[in-house]
Amino acid sequence: MKTLISVEQQAIAAKKAAKTLSLLSETDKNDALNTLADYIEKNVERIIEANEEDLQKGKEKGYDEAYMDRLALSESRVFALAKGLRDVAELEDPTGDILSEWTLENGLQVQQVRVPLGVIGMIYEARPNVTADAAGLALKSGNAIVLKGGSSSISSNRAIVEVLHEALRKTKIPAEAVQFIDSTDRAAAQQLFTMKEHIDVLIPRGGAKLISAVVSNATVPVLETGTGNCHIYVDEEADVEKALNIIVNAKTDRPAVCNAAETVILHENWLKKHSSALAESFAAHSITVHGDEKAAVYLPDVIPANEQDWSDEFLSLDIAVKVVCTLKEALEHIERYGTKHSEAIITENKRTAMQFMALADAAALYHNASTRFTDGSALGFGAEIGISTQKLHARGPMGLPALTTVKYLMHGTGQIR
Amino acid sequence: MKTLISVEQQAIAAKKAAKTLSLLSETDKNDALNTLADYIEKNVERIIEANEEDLQKGKEKGYDEAYMDRLALSESRVFALAKGLRDVAELEDPTGDILSEWTLENGLQVQQVRVPLGVIGMIYEARPNVTADAAGLALKSGNAIVLKGGSSSISSNRAIVEVLHEALRKTKIPAEAVQFIDSTDRAAAQQLFTMKEHIDVLIPRGGAKLISAVVSNATVPVLETGTGNCHIYVDEEADVEKALNIIVNAKTDRPAVCNAAETVILHENWLKKHSSALAESFAAHSITVHGDEKAAVYLPDVIPANEQDWSDEFLSLDIAVKVVCTLKEALEHIERYGTKHSEAIITENKRTAMQFMALADAAALYHNASTRFTDGSALGFGAEIGISTQKLHARGPMGLPALTTVKYLMHGTGQIR
């Protein structure tokens, strides 16, 4: 019970701090972000020591290599956190922007102005870098943040927040604008789900299970960042070199990220002609194929694909291969299994490409390019708080504007209706 | 069970129709909307007859006058439905707009394009006009819609949808793009709450109870249209004439709507000077005052205000009156009881007004004007699907752009990362 009461108190403190923060100038916020970066740099050892505690516990628990890698903070990774904060200071502050303004016939002046959301609840898993990254983006956009990280990285997160708090006390941003839920209790996170009075938005970042738990149980609005079950559709009229390059890049460049490709959908007429080149490419890059019956006709070493292969992310050098006879079939497969993240078509036929891009329902649609570009830094947003796979508020990589809302400000001289 | 299965089938049919609809030109959509208007006009009698069934049942159930008025469709009201559809045809189609475009260094062309949301689930109460209004706005913005109206207006809603379907069959929009859940079963509405596969957004319109049921139980994202517990803060430096005019207008012009004022917060120094003028205004407009202890010191006939008087909408000629000594106290009261809809300050001090507008958290903030302007048609949006009191996606009166999302379209020549 003690934890639960304190989570609410923390949220209330965050809300109060958000008011002060929302009135600060861009210069004050940038100065504060640079001070945070200074303190992170001065405390590299302290953060790494705390991280070693997490790594030790992780080893004892037998986490796999990929998980341990996400958990680990090297010296260069800590310096990257500081660099990230300085980069956010350089980004344009979206708040205060007047998005539109007009005057009614009666003289009432109407302005639509961008303002901070208020308090962001961030619920995340292993990566401790999210602690500093999310705090930086929240503060720059004038928001307070309540951080609830994964229990496996709690020592690292605690150390980072301690350093941020020490730094904030030297700035105009109240230290209470960054709240850290220092608990491994799931009930603590769950209390955030329904705290509509104090929290304006929840952003879950992590696996499908975490995100679905938040979406199903939250009454606070959620910015859903999602898993990417991304498809590449190779049309009958696809250029073979482009197709092979893009498939290999989208699958192997960083297999564990959300914009990696998980399924290739091949037009049968294309596959007939290019099966040996495709098979060579797969073999040369150690890609394991899980395919349907037709794929097994044209390609060697095909493991029969099951329902899970079509619907889940492999996040490894495995790929699912489906063979179709029409664009319609390809779109139906994407409709059924896609997660609305990123979908690509490879074709030299512009009309087919336009149809695909109009009818496939996802944040990002690619014609003759790798799905790997769905990423805030690749697209030039500077930094991202996550990639939205939902349709409301923000879709695709979310930069600072996704952390804002609007207000209508009406200036009158006594107007009545 | 039969109903439940058919609701899902209706949602699937809507999703399919949405694809066809999303490819239509603006002219095709406008032609269709004008055809819908023609058919509504040709079928006035049929719609009014169906409405009489609802009114008869409503009378038997003993609904109050205000409710019966919301339910009733006169000839002029039906013609207004047709006019509404023609007005929507005149509005600019937001879909297809390129919101931004740029080219990456590697030559990849990036476009952020506005597209329809897909399928809208509309859950509403007594007013049968919502059936035609919501369908018109959805279709114009390229969306299919699943309508679930209140059981008290089911005959009217059914007749309107029958007419819309007959009309749609003469247009390029598939009739399946408008789905009507012909059931008074609550489970039918509830099934929409979690149909994430087929429904892209839920818009509840009605009382606080309906909206809270949707928000609490839906996993489909919700556009929350809200109740308005709107406050008018009369500052120490308020002009007496402006203050009285605005209070009377915001309270009495249409007491039952969400942008009507429910509470006046008075600075004690102002009240001291102007208590008799205020009391006269209240009396002249038959306004009943529910006040705190201080209000009772300065004003006659004050009913002691209870917690509910502060927190709920009266939707009548009742008003709550709170007396404060500072702006801070006023803001705290609004923070505690406000519904983030519309809040006003009356003052001749610009600095105080700016502070109020920066710190009060609501969709619309007014300086020296009535809260009654928070309305799509008053602000010149042409039509609105509701007034959002949430902060994500859309805030304040929601016109056609609120029914859209974006897609990133990436045009490449083989780019990989």
From TrEMBL, chains A, B:
Keywords: Amino-acid biosynthesis, Cytoplasm, NADP, Oxidoreductase, Proline biosynthesis. Its main location: cytoplasm. Pathway: Amino-acid biosynthesis; L-proline biosynthesis; L-glutamate 5-semialdehyde from L-glutamate: step 2/2. It catalyses: L-glutamate 5-semialdehyde + phosphate + NADP(+) = L-glutamyl 5-phosphate + NADPH + H(+). The keyword S-adenosyl-L-methionine does not apply. Pfam families: Aldedh. Residues 7-287 form the Aldehyde dehydrogenase domain. Its EC number is 1.2.1.41. SUPFAM superfamilies: ALDH-like. It is an enzyme of class 1 (oxidoreductase). Catalyzes the NADPH-dependent reduction of L-glutamate 5-phosphate into L-glutamate 5-semialdehyde and phosphate. The product spontaneously undergoes cyclization to form 1-pyrroline-5-carboxylate. Belongs to the gamma-glutamyl phosphate reductase family. This is Gamma-glutamyl phosphate reductase. The gene is proA.
